[in-house]
Design brief:
The complex is a heterodimer of chains A (114) and B (111).
Chain A lengths: L4 E3 L2 E4 L5 E6 L6 E8 L3 E9 L2 E5 L6 E5 L5 E5 L8 E8 L9 E2 L3 E5 L1
Parallel strand pairs in A: 2-11
Antiparallel strand pairs in A: 1-3, 3-8, 4-5, 4-9, 5-6, 7-8, 9-10, 9-11
Chain B lengths: L3 E2 L4 E5 L4 E7 L6 E7 L6 E7 L4 E3 L3 E6 L4 E6 L8 E8 L5 E3 L3 E6 L1
Chain lengths: 114, 111
């Protein structure tokens, strides 16, 4: 158990809908990272938040957005969902925002778009 | 473009043997590399890392080798055990914060 929690574990929805994925980092960790893992694209970095502020963006679509709240939990919002958005979404946390920090991954949310 | 790739998508080894998983990276500016292990149904788990100013780093039963001349990274697992069966990803960081993962190698340990 990494100490990172993600909810829900599974999510099934329809095209065009909007969903919110939630991540709680390990106690004391200030950074949260979001990743997408799909069969065709592999594991891809989406976005990084540190202490409530956006730090870096990766391959995140404009239909996707994220935020980190004062209690340090984070939410990833996916809108206008398409079939291709079906994937595993992981969040990870680390103590600070330095790039050599060890990242601890959560168990993931499996999103299925029908 | 940036690319991190693995030579072998699948690897089967006998229990007790040593495993070697390879990874090629294309960006010579990458200065930090990480190996992750992902078991079925779980998130990636950090195994070991190495900075570009090092050639070798050892952990418990694992060793990472970095050859910057040919942009090659390898993960060696000594005395491979059934619990080592998983998908292994190499990753590189090319800037302060963005990480690029390789496609992964599936390691299967034969009892």
């Amino acid at each position: 158990d990494s100490g990172v929690t993600q909810t829900p574990k599974h999510l099934i929805t329809a095209t065009g809908q909007r969903v919110t994925l939630r991540c709680s980092p390990r106690s004391g960790d200030l950074s949260v990272y979001w990743y997408q893992q799909s069969l065709d694209q592999g594991l891809q970095f989406l976005i990084h938040y540190y202490n409530g502020e956006e730090r870096a963006k990766g391959n995140i679509l404009e239909r996707f957005s994220a935020q980190q709240f004062p209690d340090l939990h984070s939410e990833l919002n996916l809108s206008s969902l398409e079939l291709g958005d079906s994937a595993l979404y992981f969040c990870a946390s680390s103590v600070s925002g330095t790039y050599t920090d060890t990242q601890y991954f959560g168990p993931g949310t499996r999103l299925t778009v029908l | 473009g940036e690319n991190v790739g693995l030579h072998l998508p699948t690897l089967s080894v006998q229990e007790g043997d040593n495993s070697i998983i390879n990874c090629a990276y294309s960006n010579s500016a990458s200065d930090y590399f990480i190996w992750y292990k992902q078991e079925s149904g779980k998130g990636p788990q950090f195994i070991i890392d190495i900075r570009s100013n090092m050639d070798k780093r050892q952990g418990q039963r694992v060793t990472v080798l970095l050859n910057k001349t040919v942009k090659h990274l390898s993960l060696q697992i000594a005395a491979t055990q059934p619990g080592d069966s998983a998908v292994y990803f190499c990753a590189e960081k090319t800037s302060y914060d963005k990480v690029i993962f390789g496609p992964g190698t599936s390691l299967s340990v034969i009892p």
